[in-house]
């Protein structure tokens, strides 16, 4: 390739660099930063797609890229943030995209030069060595033989080693390597349609056995159709839709961790399909999320749902107004805890997770909070009612271990685990096929745990606890 050709910096790379620098500066999600950049909108669709691939990929593998770059930088701590980000982009192309070395190195040098002219020579030397070392780094050459498979798996997925270890402990070697294999691939898109919609616009996708769900829809056609803006559909991973469906029961429901209300919407949609009469309280810590939830529910014409903002660690305090209105401590037929979690089942869609999450958060702080929320929630379940616990994590510490700790405590002694696939709604007409989708991921104990894989949906956990 001629010098003139390789030394012209591709606009997609410089847009990716600007988005990464800004997302790091502002602590914002890189996808949103890039989507909002006027420069990115001027790119044609192919270049915009490439810029996004670089920005998401570098974010998802940041620590692995730094580990490799630092091995060849004489004084890693002296490298400015902008130059380091430019080096990461070139290293990502070399290690994970398989871009021809001469192109990735020369474009990387130009990218670095665009930030600091004086650093171009250093970039050239470092990136050539990274190009030579990439295959050995992924294969974990030089690592002790007994650790090599684990280290290689973590590096190929661009994950921190502690997370690779936690995944193997949680999912076994096969499950962890399935997740790792899919980690840098795009996740498929699914929607749940508002039951008031008679004819769904042409957005691609197939009915997949779950009422209201369309799997494998086409992103640009979905956005162009306007059905999201009209609250005629919500985007939701198919496994999350199965969990929301399992939690949909007749009677009263308290949803803890309702967020912006994707599951609130889906539960209302499935209840309408199953013919269930319901009254629903959707609670979240953040007032702003409650407002967004309420606005979408109004647009969707979904009724008998009240949003409440407050900290569910003090559930009696948050529900005081509702208790006051009823002149008693209100118990619910269903309490659904959609718990704050590490999001490790959804890392393909949220590339910030692996390198922003700490081992302490995922393995200690979040499980403590989850157990506390479950204990509080259990005190609001009617006799014969159900307590449903869900996360979008694949870590045992946040899932089975929380359920076991709960069942071992005094509050848990009033509950027993029942299979998620046997939830009442799966016995309703039209829903039986969905039980089969659940059973593919159900343990002998009846706990649901899906694991991301290429072409497959995300990692979600659900436990169904029935009050005895
Ligand atoms: C997994 S997210 C919920 C996703 C949401 N259910 C949906 O389907 O869009 C967990 C939610 O729990 C909320 N949360 C975190 N700590 C909380 C607390 N102490 N009390 C109540 N909500 C909390 C977070 O604000 C977040 O929206």
Automatic annotation (TrEMBL):
The keyword Transferase applies. It comes from the Bacteria. Coiled coil: none annotated. The active site is at residue 392. Pfam families: Methyltr_RsmB-F, NusB. The keyword Transferase applies. InterPro entries: MeTrfase_RsmB-F_NOP2_cat, MeTrfase_RsmB-F_NOP2_dom, NusB-like_sf, NusB_RsmB_TIM44, RCMT, SAM-dependent_MTases_sf. Residues 151-468 form the SAM-dependent MTase RsmB/NOP-type domain. S-adenosyl-L-methionine binds at residues 284, 311, 338. Keywords: Methyltransferase, RNA-binding, S-adenosyl-L-methionine, Transferase. Belongs to the class I-like SAM-binding methyltransferase superfamily. RsmB/NOP family. This is Transcription antitermination factor NusB. It comes from Collinsella ihumii. The lineage of its organism: Bacteria, Bacillati, Actinomycetota, Coriobacteriia, Coriobacteriales.
